């Protein structure tokens, strides 16, 4: 068993200590968004109580403190993903905005009719729709790496999908609908061998495992803060410095310029050239605090504990009759998607809620995955390191309750 003191950790997350319909809350919807520890809540509140000012522009003390805290958070993100320089970290709203930024600033200027963009069948809509929109604009083609019944990428034809027409490969590290951990390092190596740049969507990976962009050697890495115990509305885009230097800004406005005249605007240096307008200062500070918190728990330790949780949940839920687990790869993180025979997942979610068990039901913004399995939706439990084996037992009890009601 893991050495983490889960009860002590849970005390840092005040929201977990409540009852729903008289049952202790079992919050198992972490893939949608995670809960926030007091350390993050306090960091945001302290900023507003003591330091609130706009960044980068002021000579007064508060502005300097706000700027130091904001830029300090950037350094924490750089360290968290093992990037080489703070210049490689752009604050954005989240994974969605980061992907759109890369689509518009990096891919759009070089995309022509007949070119290809390679994604996989198990992407979140955030890593499908921006590329599809670009393809529609210029007459390029979206090419999709297929998947198997286990919910793994089918890489048998992968080499053939990487062609001279491929302008970028954009793949998720961990599937939000299935939990599958994809072999993104190997895939990146193969793409690079053919000169194809790579974006990795780390939104479902960073809350559960160490991130190392230099080891992955990806050109871009994106994630959202709110899935890793930080506030909503903040996330990061990592990009290799040499590539970011060459890219044109996506959005124009204040802070992303060095000088403006009606004749010409000179853009600011990295990473500010991609941060137009007043940024989410408190969100960035909260993200920095979330990174501190995860590192104080220990990312390898929390990953190991979550693996135990997922193994236990898979064995318990998988042992039940009349139920099908969707996504059965050996390489999984955090997510247990399932269907109870004869019951629509939305009914499952509602009955679970009446027992205090919060899960997500629906297509999880991954409709092509649902189409692959020929189902409209799944019920999805997703874990974080503050979840307990007792909560897994509550999940199993809730499933049995549904089965009794629909017997
Ligand atoms: N990518 C994956 C794998 C996700 O799970 C999500 C959100 O669920 C996103 C991207 C989009 O994240 P956000 O909505 O925070 O931008």
Element layout with pairings:
Blueprint: H1 6-11, E1 19-20, E2 23-24, E3 26-27, H2 38-51, H3 61-80, E4 89-92, H4 95-107, E5 116-120, H5 129-138, E6 141-145, H6 158-161, E7 166-172, H7 184-193, E8 198-201, H8 213-216, E9 220-224, E10 235-239, H9 241-246, E11 257-260, E12 265-267, H10 281-297, H11 299-318, E13 323-326, E14 335-340, H12 345-353, E15 357-358, E16 360-362, H13 367-373, E17 378-382, H14 389-405
Parallel strand pairs: 3-15, 5-6, 5-7, 7-8, 8-9
Antiparallel strand pairs: 1-2, 4-10, 9-10, 11-12, 13-14, 14-17, 16-17
Helix pairs in contact: 2-10, 3-10, 11-14
The structure holds pyridoxal-5'-phosphate.
- List the strand order in the largest sheet: 4-10-9-8-7-5-6
CATH superfamily label of the largest domain: Type I PLP-dependent aspartate aminotransferase-like (Major domain)
First-last Cα distance: 36 Å
Please give the largest β-sheet: 7 strands, mixed
Principal-axis shape: globular
- Structural class, by secondary structure, is alpha/beta
CATH class of the largest domain: Alpha Beta
**And the CATH topology of the largest domain?**
Aspartate Aminotransferase, domain 2
Number of helices: 14
CATH architecture of the largest domain: 3-Layer(aba) Sandwich
Approximately how much beta-strand content do the residues carry?
15-25%
Q: Average pLDDT, to the nearest integer?
A: 97
